[in-house]
Design a protein that fits this description.
Elements lengths: L7 H7 L4 E3 L6 H13 L7 E3 L4 H9 L7 E4 L2 H10 L6 E4 L4 E5 L5 H13 L9 E7 L3 H14 L15 H16 L3 E3 L6 E2 L2 E2 L2 E4 L5 H4 L6 E7 L2 H8 L4 E2 L1 E5 L3 H10 L4 E4 L15 E2 L2 E2 L5 H7 L11
Parallel strand pairs: 1-2, 3-4, 5-6, 5-13, 6-11, 10-11, 13-14
Antiparallel strand pairs: 4-16, 7-10, 8-9, 12-15
Helix pairs in contact: 5-6, 9-10
């Protein structure tokens, strides 16, 4: 999943910039391989530098460099606040951050399609993607049926040998952090649905549905792992209000055959991208991608917005 931020390199280089690329310390090899691949493909030497190291050590020298013309971050809200506080006023800043993204499944939904959308949205990349769905709001008329379908789908993800289609999280630390959310749900007496006994080992976390959890961290914070909440809803305005009850505003979605219901949802949703009958993960780079609230700052990514961020406007008047 940590190759996704690399795509913004294309816009930066296409606009004629030299780029310093600082990948996550958990994905340093990915950054080095990307730089090597671009150089092998013919990128002129000196235009791209991959810098590996802990941000706490190298951030000051990078962010205070007089040659710095802009910073584009993919990361957490806390990292964005810290970086922006260190930048000179004239340095443009773009941030693509996290999200607590919601999918609403309406009463008329095709439940087979809904299950496909949810599995792709919540468990692709092991949930380690900013657009992953972390909250499901399901109409009471189809609540039990969809829950049964998802229980079966979770069981299909893991076989008896312990091999699964999810893989491991990026580190043991992340796996433990994600598992803490499941432990919180159990402590609050929520029903935790898993295809196997809980816990984590060697960076691997069993996928989980947290059924009807208490309002709080489980319903408002980004978990960034294969864990999603499952809650009942009966009114579309209630669904919109619940989906918006978070500091984030990156993506949201609804599964329904009623375009009027879908329209009410996307008009009310406080999210930069809204999808109807489609997985939340996977946003093509030719369209603008922007997060609201704690999900983003500055220019949108993708399409013309990317080129606008990586270039500067100059107005010239010529009179003969």
């Amino acid at each position: 999943p940590f190759t996704i931020p690399i795509r913004k390199l294309s816009a930066a280089l296409a606009a004629g910039n030299a780029v310093v690329f600082k990948p996550s310390t958990n994905a340093g090899v990915t950054g080095l391989m990307t730089a090597a691949t671009l150089l092998d493909a013919g990128l002129p030497a000196g235009l791209l530098h991959a810098t590996i190291g802990r941000s706490s050590v190298i951030a000051d020298s990078l962010l205070s460099a007089p040659e710095l013309d802009g910073v584009s971050l993919t990361g957490s809200y806390e990292a964005a606040v810290d970086i922006r506080s260190r930048l000179r006023m004239e340095v443009p800043f773009q941030a693509e951050l996290g999200g607590k993204n919601t999918i609403v499944v309406w009463a008329d939904a095709d439940l087979a399609k809904a299950a496909d959308v949810i599995v792709a949205s919540s468990f692709r990349n092991n949930g380690q993607i900013c657009t992953a769905a972390g909250r499901l709001l399901v109409h009471t008329d189809v609540y039990d049926d969809l829950l049964a379908r998802l229980k079966a789908r979770l069981s299909d993800m893991t076989d008896t040998s312990g091999r699964d289609e999810l893989g491991i999280l990026v580190s043991d630390g992340e796996a433990g952090r994600v598992e803490d959310y499941v432990s919180l749900a159990e402590h609050q007496a929520s029903d935790v649905v898993r295809p196997e006994p809980g816990g984590w080992r060697d960076g691997r976390v069993a996928p989980a549905l947290l059924v009807n959890p208490a309002a709080g961290p489980l319903t408002t914070e980004e978990i960034f792992g294969p864990v999603v909440t499952f809650e009942p809803v009966s009114d579309i305005d209630e669904a919109v209000a619940m989906a918006n009850a978070t500091a984030y505003g990156l993506t949201s979605g609804i599964v329904t055959g009623d375009i009027a219901v879908a329209r009410r949802f996307w008009k009310g949703s406080h999210a930069g991208t809204v999808k109807v009958n489609s997985p939340l993960t996977g946003v093509p780079f030719h369209v603008p991608f922007e997060g609201y609230g704690h999900s983003g700052a500055g220019w949108a990514e993708g399409g013309e917005s990317s080129l606008e961020f990586f270039t500067r406007t100059k107005t010239v008047f010529v009179r003969s």
